[in-house]
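[step 3/7] fold_predict: job queued, chain A
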Amino acid sequence: MTEDRPAPPSYEPLPEDWATALFVVAHPDDIEYGAAAAVARWTGQGKRVVYCMVTSGEAGIDGLHPEECRSVREAEEVASARAVGVDEVVFLRLPDGILEYGVALRRAIAQVVRQQRPDIAMTINFRETFGGTNLNQADHIAVGRALLDAVRDAGNRWIFPEQLVGGLEPWGGVRAVWAGSSPQATHAVDVTDTFAAGVDSLKEHRAYIDGLGWEGWDPEEFLDGILRAGGQGLGVTHAATFEVFPLGWG
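[step 4/7] structure written:
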């Protein structure tokens, strides 16, 4: 008698009929645990992808003072973005580790949305867990929740009107928010051909990875495990998964 095993989840392909995306995350390295391989695919198609780091991850390395850590991690993120074809990285430099969901965070993100004018806004998982009992980090949750509101705030002329100077106008053109590696992911994108670029992007975070003290940790093996699981649900070797939050009515 064989034990019945649950079937792997099945994912819908992500739409790719867009030109510009804004990827907003709390820390340098957040994008690189799977989603960067998708970014490499999209920049390879000629799409424009802009990164926005809400903090600089300055509280992320125990043995490095935040003032020094900030510059190290910003430089690593710029190099990491370049590895997947992204040459625009915005740093908001809000305090690492103590972000709070609320009006101030919505305001900061809405301004970037208005400036960059994306079709799609992205972030990483901001559910309470990564699945099971593995708790998510507070900054991730705050940024994801604020992004959902900020993309709508950005389209309303009477919300944060002080931003509308120097020709800056409201932007209500964000069609959806996508959250990478969510435990409630419904969609995925084939990254088989850009897997290696995703690995190269993660490897650029040398100081951070060394600071974690993960002895024997292999970035390629780690990403292979994540992206093969996504690939099973899309019928390909490697795939990055996303939860999709459509905007608009109906």
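[step 5/7] annotate
The longest strand covers residues 239-246.
The beta strands are 12-13, 20-25, 48-53, 89-91, 120-124, 176-180, 187-190, 239-246.
exit 0
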